[in-house]
Amino acid sequence: MKKETVIEDAITYIRQLKGRVLFLCDQVLQVEPLEEEETKPKIDENAAEEMKNCGIEEDVKVTNMGGNKLRINIIFGKKRGNFTKLVEAMNALGFVFGDTSVTTLKGATLFSSVLEGTHGGDRIIRVEETRELLLKIIRGI
Amino acid sequence: MYEETGCFDPNSMAEGGDDGISQSVKHHKEDDAAVSAIELELQKHLAFNVEDTHTQSISINSNTHSIHDPANQNHQILPPYEHSHSNWDSGVVSADHMGGFDQNENDQSQQSFINTDISSSFAQSQTPPLLNLLQFPRCTTSSMLPPNSSISFTNPDHHFPVPPPTSTDVLYDPLFHLNLPPQPQPPLFRELFQSIPHGYSFPASASRAAANSLFGEIGDERDATGAFYEDGDVGVHLDNRVLEFSRDLGCIGRRRETAGKPTKHFATERQRREQLNGKFKALKDLVPNPTKNDRASVVGDAIEYIKELLRTVNELKLLVEKKRCVRERRKRHRTEDDDEGMKPLVDPADQSYNSSLRSSWLQRKSKDTEVDVRIIDDEVTIKLVQRKKIDCLLFVSRVLDELQLDLHHVAGGHIGDYYSFLFNTKIYEGSSVYAGSIANKLIEVMDKQYAAVPPTSCAY
Description:
The complex is a heterodimer.
Chain A: H1 3-30, H2 39-54, E1 59-66, E2 69-77, H3 82-93, E3 96-105, E4 108-116, H4 127-140
Antiparallel strand pairs in A: 1-2, 2-4, 3-4
Chain B: H1 10-30, H2 32-46, H3 52-63, H4 70-75, H5 81-98, H6 107-124, H7 130-134, H8 141-144, H9 174-178, H10 189-194, H11 204-215, H12 226-229, H13 234-260, H14 269-286, H15 295-337, E1 359-365, E2 369-376, E3 379-387, H16 392-402, E4 405-415, E5 418-427, H17 435-452
Antiparallel strand pairs in B: 1-2, 2-3, 3-5, 4-5
Helix pairs in contact in B: 1-13, 2-5, 3-5, 5-11, 6-11, 14-15, 16-17
């Protein structure tokens, strides 16, 4: 097969596959399953139950890492949209996260991160204040 | 490197000729009214004992599209001279008139020539059926002459009358001018045209002259001006017209071929190269993440993209299937449980419907963001690398919520100029995301955020 024909065939095939993908996408959107809301509260309930069973409690730990950084560990119940709210709240407060790690286990979420102070003048962030703040956030979620 | 086709291919030429003939035939249909009118007039002038039926057959022959009349021809093998003459005359006249004759001045002088020639030719040959002559209506040089290769002046010693051409139309009249020995000539119109490549020559000018001359008075038919016809001038004119015709037919042949299928003839090697480059560019444009511009990279990207598309197709197929199953299951359960008022849990046995594992993987890149999405069954792993400008965690988590992905694990941090994150998520049941949608959405959001945020200096 010549080079030209190979390239032409490739172009044709890619176009064809693209068309197929679009068609299947439409099909997927059409076959939308009904009534998925029931599963949501169920999952959340399960998560809360598990947490209780394992004795995991909501908690916030803030540690000073030296310099401008604070180590933050937050444990909260895993619910749908929880994490987003947490991050939103933190953002609103002006926290900028460095290295972050989030894990979930038994219906609980552990959010571990390094917080760097963004307040211009106030370089020293008091640990206790941060902790209180975060606790409020979690309870609010 | 490339081969010439179509120009001098005798087959196409013959076809071209046929087309030309049919076209000319169509042309002459327009003049039918005028032709018949003049035919009637001529008949009066000619004052010949023309059989009405015969004349009518002639006019019919000349006026209809399919121009052959075997019955008539059979009868015309040895027509009386006057009869044949008149037929020929009227036929010639009508044929020429179909071609749009409008010159009367030279006719009178030339008419005698024709008559003389008719007599001479008929005397010599075995009076080929006049209808053969009549069956060649207006035909232009471009359509009637055979290809150059097959045109040959087969009878160089014949004397062809060549009065100066007075009109642009050609009256095709091979038999008349060839003075052929008594051989069976193909009587039919089409047969004659098929025999064109066999060496018939078409002294167009002579025919024209003959036709023109007939239009004037026809009193002097028998005058001997055969001397005029003795001029051996035809060769030059014929060759010229033959050359023109072959060129025209070549165009016809080429046109016909190009109309049939796309030719791949490149005038130069350079055009060929340009076309190839164009194709490479088209391939590059199809691929979403073009890396480099050299040919090898383009081909490599295309290969990867094709594989990705195949994976996506499979994934989507599975997804559709799965959702259909789920939907049917839900419907079934709903109808069953209406009495109980309780929804049963998802039947684990139903999961055997989808035995195949859903898997897909694709990557998308934009200016500031790179996304890598891998899906295995219901777990989605997203790798995100983006330039450190905004806090992406918030936006990503928002997107994940939108896409109904349950965040299980996140790991990430700063690496040089970039944020790098790894998200392990699970698809909530009932969500209809697929790898492509996740990647596209993420890229879209990221780019939007980047565009919205004006460039700010880093906090530290």
